[in-house]
Amino acid sequence: MIGGCDERGKARATIGTTVTLGRDNPPVTTGSQPTSECPVTAPGQQPATQGARSLDPHLRRYAARTAGMTASEIRALFAVASRPEVVSLAGGMPYLAALPLDSLSAEIGNLIATDGLVALQYGSAHGVPELREQICEVMALEGISAHPDDVVVTVGSQMALDMVTRIFCDPGDVVLAEGPSYVGALGSFAAYQAQVVHVAMDDDGLIPAALREALAAVAARGQRVKFLYTIPNFHNPAGVTLAVSRRAEVLEICRQHGVLVVEDNPYGLLGFDGQTYPALRSSDPDNVVYLGSFSKTFAAGLRVGWALAPHAVREKLVLAAESATLCPPTLNQLVVSRYLSTHDWKGQIKTYREAYRERRDAMLSALEQHMPAGCTWTRPDGGFYVWLTVPEGIDTKAMLPRAVTQRVAYASGTGFYADRLGSRQMRLSFCYPTPERIKEGVRRLANVLEGEIQLHATFGSTPRREVSGPQAPSPDTA
Ligand SMILES: Cc1ncc(COP(=O)(O)O)c(C=O)c1O
Hints:
The chain is of the alpha/beta class. Helix content is about 40%, strand content about 15%. The longest helix has 26 residues, at about 345-370.
């Protein structure tokens, strides 16, 4: 399972106060005295948002489902972590500096000049027809043959996740998801009071035998699984990819048990060697809802994603989208559509891939060079993330403020589980900082870890904090 660690990074693992920022920086007061500048929570203290909630005069009015909506701890630390002197390996922000901004700006100006009255008008909840056709061409790169009618354009794939959960899950319904899983998906599941049962992964992604076991365990409790949520390619946060040899088996198991598959694939075109994998949707169109996004392959700020769904599900998704937003932004859809028809978008993806590969290499070699014995990590061949496991007794969530003090930030593992696991793990993102910054960040992180390991050897474990389970997604933890 992802999570085992014996040897210095070599093991084939299973995945299963006052902050002072160095000599030149003023101390930042945290926790009980949050400043508007830096509302940070220290270990053992209640997050500021929770403290504030108890003073909230509307507390008794909220729907029960809001209990599952909690702020990300990283969000609170973000004000500090985004200071220039801190190397943030926490966020999942794409490296947009690789975009051709001049020609994009000319294109957008031209769009408003020529089609402004359409671009600035309401549109259909289904999405702009021309863009839906182009989305089918994008999906063909991963073996999907689809009709544009079955594509629903969404405000990022995050909205598609929300809608899928809304149309399928009643409170208490079970959703299966890899452990760990994408924090934004866990946030949506919590918001609709679905119960998440995690399925273990290894370096080849979701383990089919673990999927069978999870299904049997849920059935034994008399519960019904609504869907399997899976990120087959370049997983967030684990960095692993579902082996091609496992794909048919995963689909077959889900079919046998009458379980829908929700395939979330924002990173599929970001394989560092240009490799792509056959989408699950390509071999089981009737039982897979596929989610895609332009956030990682073009521009996250445009918030354009999509769902490709079996016909009947597509109808429900359009109705759900209508009630949420009336329609996705027409301007943004037309910007994406023009970009796809006038720019070398495949060349742009190649540019992104090369930038991310260089960053991945920098991170892996720095981990190899600096990490203390007993740490292991995954070796992604695409995407944005490495999943690091630290030795027994170290709590990555408790360690985070100390890491920020040493001017490095990461996303602690507990946010990626619905069931309080992950305290020995962390996600390291290599997508945004330069290779030099990544190396420096890993060096600082290794120093912090060395200190924690020595403390642990001397005094035993740091007391483990209660964790609140899934948290609301935010750009800094996405
Ligand atoms: C696995 C996964 N799914 C969905 C999303 C949401 O992406 P979007 O920007 O399309 O809403 C992200 C963002 O990081 C992600 O990593």
